[in-house]
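Researcher: Please predict.
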Amino acid sequence: MRGLNIFGAMVVLAANLYVSFNHTLDLFESAGFTGNRAVVATIGAEAGFLVGVVNLVVARFKGIQPGWPAKASGVLGLFLVGWSNVAAGWPYGVVGVALGLYIPAMMFATEANLGWSLSNKPTKEDGQTTPSKADQPTKTTNQDQPATKVVGREDKPTSKPSNVVDMADRKAKKTTTSTRGKADPRLVEKLKEFIEKEGRFPSEREFAIYADVSRYQARKAIKEYKAG
């Protein structure tokens, strides 16, 4: 099917190009161009139209923005080719003008069809024809995706970024600030356990040895117990 599309598009393009070439040649000759100069000018005009349209079609199928040279050559070529074909049919009224417009329009459509057929190459797999990679959605690989940090997963980078270190430091400082001034509830429970067991209130040094903590922590636990 793809081969038939390409062959048919080439036949239609060649036939319309032949007619359009002669109309453009007549237009140049009517303006004073003679001999080889008229032929060369016609070749340049038709080739410019074809190249401009091909670039526009290719950019369209690739999903990119065509540059101004492609747009300019396509517009100028379409203007001149359309003018020459309309001028050839002008003496014949509406029908002649319509057929004159038909020729460049069909050339444009044929080039678009040809570009589509050439840019969508089928691949055979298990006897089935599948669309080419140009038609398939682009799959993002792991290399293209930004690295994400998974909670609970320990990475082992050689060095941490500075922003990660700063965030960790701020988090640690925030936690320290929020817990500052309050004793560990487990120390308070140990203090209650000591009082129930010994029947008396311990000193800071004695409770620090009993709970295996610093005297500062023991002092906070005793103060919190007395305050509560």
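Model: The CA atoms of residues 70 and 170 lie 56 Å apart.
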